Amino acid sequence: MAEPAVEEPRRVDAGKRRDIERVWESWLDYQRFPDRCVLSESRVELIASRLHSHSAEELCLVVQYAFEANTPEMRFLRGDNREARTYLDLENLLRVTKIDSRVERATEWAAREDQDVADIGVRLSPVAVFKRGPWRG
C-alpha cells in the first residue's frame, strides 16, 4: 500500500512569520485554555493568506472586536444565540467571505471606543469596555 502524500509546509519569511505569530497570539490571549491550542499548518496558511490583503494590526483588531464588541453580530459569535454555540475560531473570524466587512466594522468600533474614552482622558481595559456595554448618553 502506498503511503498518503504529505504536503510539505510552505516556507514563510521571517517578517510574515512574526505577523502570523502576532495574530495567533492576539487570538490565543482570549482562549480559556491556551495551552490546548495549536498553531497548525492550516492556521498558518489561513493567517498568511489574509495578510496578503490586510495588515496584522487589522487582523488583531478583528480578533479583539469579536471578543469585546457589544454588537449583535459579535454577541451571536460569542454564544448569544439559540444553540448557545460559539463561533470564535480563527477559521470563522478570518473567513474570506467576511474578512473585509469585519475589518471595516472593527475599525469603526475601535474608533468609537477611542472617542468615548478620549472625552474623559481614560483608557479602559478590554474587560471594562466589555462590561460597560453600549453607551447610553
State the gist of this model:
Residues 1-9 have low confidence and may be disordered. The chain is mainly alpha-helical and 137 residues long. The protein has seven helices and no strands.
Describe, in plain words, how this protein is organized in 3D.
- This protein has 137 residues and is an all-alpha fold.
- It is 55% helix and 0% strand.
- The protein has helices at residues 14-28, 41-50, 56-68, 72-77, 90-93, 99-118, 126-132.
- The protein is globular and about 40 Å long.
- Mean pLDDT is 83; it is low at 1-9.
Secondary structure layout:
Blueprint: H1 14-28, H2 41-50, H3 56-68, H4 72-77, H5 90-93, H6 99-118, H7 126-132
Helix pairs in contact: 1-3, 3-6
Structural class by helix and strand composition: mainly alpha
User: Secondary-structure element sequence?
Assistant: HHHHHHH
Uncertain spans, ≥5 residues at pLDDT below 50? 1-9
Shape: globular
Mean model confidence by pLDDT? 83
How many helices? The count is 7
Q: Termini distance?
A: 70 Å
**Sheet with the most strands, sense and barrel status:** none
Give the fraction of residues assigned to helices.
40-55%
How many E strands?
A: 0
From the structure provided, what is the oligomeric state, counting identical versus distinct chains?
single chain
C-alpha Rg, in Å? 17 Å
- What fraction of residues sit in β-strands? under 5%
